[in-house]
Amino acid sequence: MQGVVEQYFFDTDKLKTSSIVSYGLRPLVKTGGEDSLFSIWTHEARDDVAAGKNDEALAEYVTFCVTTINRLLVAIRKNLSSGRWTTDRNAEKRVLATTYVNSFLITLRLLIKAGKSLAQTDLEKGFAGIDNFDFGAYHSSQYKRMAEQIVDVHFGMKAEALT
To answer: Where are the domains of the chain?
Structure first.
């Protein structure tokens, strides 16, 4: 995602950082809940990190989060046609839009909550056919609805069963 996320307010054709942090990342990396990366992070200093007492372990948690999120994004990208992994608004059927990225991050939360494997090969297998997904049917703040459809179609899970 390097180079495609907005750093300054005047950046154009980039993903909106505030929306991704608020609706995609914050719920995914929180230190509570059964749908966060923290819930599957096995580290002896988990409690210290949750209490804000161990900066070294916190750095390891951040690395774990980055690695896991990258694994998800790579699995999606590998299953897309050439040219779709772009923020260019003029590109036909682009996939790098704030709505879609937030939906991917919520998809990861749903997979965590369901106890699904997050191994690279399993994610790539699960996202097979994502190139045919109707991304255009989802707009603005329909992140959760899109994520629920992805887990239903690509992972055979009904999102309602996870709530």
So the answer is: 17-162
